[in-house]
Amino acid sequence: MTAILGISAHHDDSAAALVVDGEIVAAVQEERITRERRDPALPVNAIRACLRMGGLAPEQLDYVGFYEKPYQKFDRIVESYLSRVPYGLRSFTNVMPSWLKERLWVPRELRKSLGGAYRKRFLFVEHHQSHAAAAFFPSPFQEAAILTLDGVGEWATSSFGVGRGNRIELTHELRFPHSLGLLYAAVSSYVGFEGDSDGSKLANIAPLGDPTYTDLILEHLVDVKGDGSFRVNSSYFDFEAGLTTSPSFHEIFGGPPREPGSEITQRELDIAASIQKVTEEVVLRAARHVHAKTGMRNLCLSGGVALNCVANGRILREGPFEKIWIQPAAGDAGGALGVALFIGYQLLDQPRHARPGDSENGALLGPSFTNDEIRTFLEGTTAVYEDLDDDETLIERVADLLASGKVVGWFQGRMEFASRGLGSRSILADPRLHDVRGAINRMVKFREPFRPLAAAVLREHVGEYFELPGSADCPYMLFALPVSERERRQPTPDEAAARGVERVEVQRSTIPAVTHVDFSAPVQMVDSERHGIFHRLLTAFHEKTGCPLLANTGFNLDWEPIVNTPKDAYQTFMSSGMDALCLGRFLLTKSQQGPWVSIEGARRPEHMLRDLLASPCCGVDLVPGEDRLVCAACGHVFPVEGGIPRLFWSHEEVDDPSAVTEMVKAFYEETPFPNYQDDESVRSLIDKSRKGLYADMLHRAIPFNSTVLEVGCGTGQLTNFLGIACRRMVGADLCLNSLQLGEKFRSSHDLDTIAFTQMNLFRPAFKRESFDVVLCNGVLLTTRDAFAGFQNILSLVKPGGYVVIGLYNTFGRLMTDLRRQIFRVTGGRAQWLDPHLRRSSLSEDQRRAWFADQYLHPHETKHTIGEALRWFDECGVEFVRGLPAVKPDEDPPALDGLFTTTPPGNRLDHFLVQAIHIATGSLEGGFFIMIGRKPGAPPGSALSLPV
Question: Domain 371-592 belongs to what topology?
Answer without folding.
Answer: DHBP synthase (3.90.870)
